[in-house]
Amino acid sequence: MSAGTIARYATGSLGTGGFATLPGLVLTYYLTDSLGVAALAAGAVITIAKVWDVIIDPVIGALSDRDLARHSSRRRLMLIGACALPVLFSLTFAVPPALGPVAAGIWVLLAFTLTATAFSLFQVPYIALPAELTPRYDERTRLLTWRVVVLTLAILLFGAGGPALRRVSDDPVVGYLVMGVVCGVVIGIGMLVSTTVARRSAVAPGAAPVGEKTGIREHYAAGIHALRRSRPFRLLLATFVLQALATGLMLAGAQYVATWVLHSEAAVELLFVALIAPALLAAPGWGVVARRIGKERTFAIASVLFGVAALSILGVLWAPGDWIYVPVGVAGIAYAGMQSLPMAMLPDVISHDERTHGAGRAGEFSGVWTAGETVGFALGATTLSLILALTGYVSRAAGEIVQQPDAAVTGIVVSFSLVPAVLIAASLVTLARYPLRRADIDAS
């Protein structure tokens, strides 16, 4: 692959990283601490939107395969999603101040559900592309390593820059609107750039089956069949979903840690710098290690490192302070590997399936993969909302001053450290059973 192809594909992660980061970071907080929505209701809003996302992802995957078969490109759905997302993302953070908590929650639910739909139209075909851009084991590692470099840069940009944009005005309503508009446009631009790579897909028309039946049942059946017939896919997906739940939980909890543990809303930007700055440097390093000892072993090392770092953060319960940025930085180093390596392993899984069942079904896998990733991140926000509700977290409207009970602060710390560490430990069980190695891919 040329450097230009790699760069344009990686640029798409400016959009995927932005959308994955900013709503996960600020949306729950926006609902509970600006719109006055109760914590449990805020979790329900996000969960419902994500459930819808899970429902449509397999359908989009099948439609993407049909586009490839008919037009030799997955570009059409990617373009629709990239053009629609900036408008819908802005609307999510444009709730009129006169609305009460109930109406505001409904507004966010509808706008965010439509935004998630636009994102899936882009994301599902985008994830399917690496399996078609190159057949080589190490070349895929190279492609996905640079994608994760851009992804981590996007997380830094949106994780620190999004909350900073929110403070351009003393009026939170204006601040959130500015953040939504600016970030939505940047996300859309990143997505549009990467759609140009889809035009280069070297798959002949008719490579995927185009049957007579095209109903929703057939689309779901295709995704479920891909999951059932591929043991490597099931194990890799289970590992990734557990880790998405862990990182989604930490992402949703970062703003709460900054506000109620570090006692500074602006500290969330420092948390993200501590997380992402090391990851930017570490991503190429994980690629080098993977070429020496294999993706699966390197993935396990990164996961263990992340789990240990997360667990150590539990110490802020007894000694809160700036030392928290050190384990967060270590987690950032590990996070780079946890993102790039499973994404580089997914095309290997697809290739392994193609040897038996034929080419042109990457959309089936990417649709189920995106649904699984969505479930993980959605359950992260939902889990946080449940922990907050159970520990007595007090929601507030913009500008209102409240005092949180000690139990709520403890719940925030536990959700940012102990629970993610347990989830990472569980993910290592499924990863240990993943069967594919370099010889299985390059030998084919």
Name some characteristics of this structure:
single chain; mainly alpha; 79% helix; globular
Please estimate the helix content: over 70%
Class from secondary-structure proportions: mainly alpha
Count of DSSP-assigned helices: 16
Major sheet characteristics: none
State the separation between the terminal residues, measured CA to CA. 19 Å
Uncertain stretches of 5 or more adjacent residues: 200-213
In quaternary terms, these chains amount to single chain
Query: What is the CA-based Rg, rounded?
Result: 21 Å
Q: H/E order of the elements?
A: HHHHHHHHHHHHHHHH
Shape: globular
Mean pLDDT: 84
Share of residues in strands: under 5%
- The total count of strands amounts to 0
Organism: Microbacterium jejuense
Pfam family, one: MFS_2
Keywords: Membrane, Transmembrane, Transmembrane helix
Protein name: MFS transporter
